[in-house]
Write a structure and sequence with these properties.
This is Xylose isomerase. The chain is an alpha/beta fold. Helices cover 45% and strands 12% of the residues. The chain folds into two domains: 3-377, TIM Barrel, CATH 3.20.20; 383-436, no CATH class. β3 and β4 form a beta hairpin.
């Protein structure tokens, strides 16, 4: 079967409505439906990722590939990469998504030298550019893989060897150049090996300074070439290292403040990474908004019974409703979107399983978005929240937060008070959420 018809589907997936039982049709994702003043497609900004969809072979630590994708079989590397591109753009067409994303190593083979690798990347970028002339899909973000090759086993920017640092600079420059050339909306940095296995051989301050310098140079270069999108950091606490320096939203915020990067660097957040850090997905999103760091989302999930990053397709409507509720409160995405950093399961070996997984998750996201819209329209959570903090709206307490009262003045005021506890009403609020999902 030709790779431009690898999935055996001529027509794009259509919206059929909630009554449909067709796994290759949308029940809730109606791209032209207006949600909070924007088309649903423009609110969700779905992106298919290259790596899990077209590069992961279906292996696990105890077994090899199960998918047997034609472009993963032996053959001339660049020719296989071109076959992969054909299949990828066919999936983009079938799903009718507005965006895709990639690592450099996903789309093109590594050469014997960095220069050869960059030539390969640009050859595939030529193909992307041509395909994108007639396709709807655009680039949400590009990135460089600075974690798979053995040269990066001790990190990239944080590596004790400055030659690895320099090599990583060359690789990232090339990936950003291609992202800029393809009009990408963002550029992502994931520090998969920027961390440590043991503190016995780690100079943490030195490594953090190296990482800060690396990102500062990257920001300078982005401005030099006129790349308008933000640099996005994707927090993750562990895997593949024992401890990664981009542990969670709060850790990255402190790092960006120290190295004066918060203006140009935002966050790409993922549910599974939040869980590994001991947080909920909506916690990380709310904290990012609270610190003006929200950028984009990887829309996948982990397994609650497993303690590692399983990258499953997002299906939890309630969880996503709370995330989208926060997003809609702040006006939705700017340059970001919902990137499917998700893998079908190892036993889902039929080509159409990849289509069905995206369709089901897109529908779950659409259903969550509609629930979040109804919650906001009804002020279901906003009214109780405003009531809980209503005391701070009194003039005397507004003056405190405005810096118009001294500590002594507020303490003096407190001497005449006898405040009484008030119910947090958690169960009531949980019940309210359940009415919508």
């Amino acid at each position: 079967m030709a790779q431009d018809n690898y999935f055996g589907l001529d027509a794009s997936v259509a919206f059929e409505g909630e009554a449909s039982r067709n796994p290759l049709a949308f029940r809730f994702y109606d791209k032209d439906r207006t949600v909070m003043g924007r088309r649903m497609e423009d609110q969700l900004r779905f992106a298919v990722c290259y790596w899990h969809s077209f590069t992961w072979p279906g292996g696990d630590p105890f077994g090899g590939e199960t998918f047997l994708r034609p472009w993963m079989q032996p053959g001339e590397a660049l020719a296989r990469a071109k076959e992969k591109a054909d299949a990828a753009f066919d999936l983009f067409r079938i799903l009718d998504v507005p965006f895709f994303s990639f690592h450099d190593a996903d789309v093109s083979p590594e050469g014997a030298t960095l220069a050869e690798s960059i030539r390969n990347l640009n050859e595939i970028a030529d193909i992307f550019e041509k395909k994108m002339e007639s396709a709807k899909v655009r680039l949400l973000w590009g990135t460089a893989n600075l974690f798979s090759h053995r040269r990066y086993m001790a990190g990239a920017a944080t590596n004790p060897d400055p030659e690895v640092f320099a090599y990583a600079c060359g690789q990232v420059k090339a990936a950003l150049d291609v992202t800029h050339r393809l009009n990408g909306a963002n550029y992502v940095c994931w520090g998969g090996r920027e961390g440590y296995e043991t503190l016995l051989n780690t100079d943490m301050k030195r490594e953090l300074d190296q990482l800060g310098r690396f990102l500062s140079m990257l920001v300078d270069y982005k401005h030099k070439i006129g790349f308008d999108g933000p640099i996005l950091i994707e927090p993750k606490p562990k895997e593949p290292t024992k401890h990664q320096y981009d542990f969670d939203t709060a850790t990255v915020f402190a790092f960006l403040q120290k190295y004066d990067l918060a203006k140009d660097v935002k966050l790409n957040l993922e549910q599974n990474h939040a869980i590994l850090a001991g947080h909920s997905f909506d916690h990380e999103v709310k904290l990012a908004y609270a610190n003006d760091l929200f950028g984009s989302l990887d829309i996948n999930r982990g397994d609650d019974l497993l303690g590692w990053d399983t990258d499953q397709f997002a299906m939890d409507v309630k969880e996503m409703t709370l995330v989208f509720h926060e997003m809609l409160k702040h006006g939705g995405f700017s340059t970001g979107g919902l990137n499917f950093d998700a893998k079908i399961r190892r036993q889902s070996i039929d080509p159409q399983d990849l289509v069905i997984a995206h369709v089901a998750s897109m529908d779950a996201c659409a259903r969550a978005l509609l629930a979040a819209e109804r919650m906001l329209e009804d002020k279901a959570l906003e009214t109780p929240l405003a009531e809980r903090y209503a005391g701070w709206d009194k003039p005397e307490y507004k003056a405190v937060l405005a810096g118009e009262k001294t500590f002594e003045e507020v303490a003096e005021h407190g001497l005449g008070l006898q405040p009484q506890p008030r119910s947090g009403r958690q169960e009531l609020l949980e019940g309210i959420v359940n009415r919508y999902v």
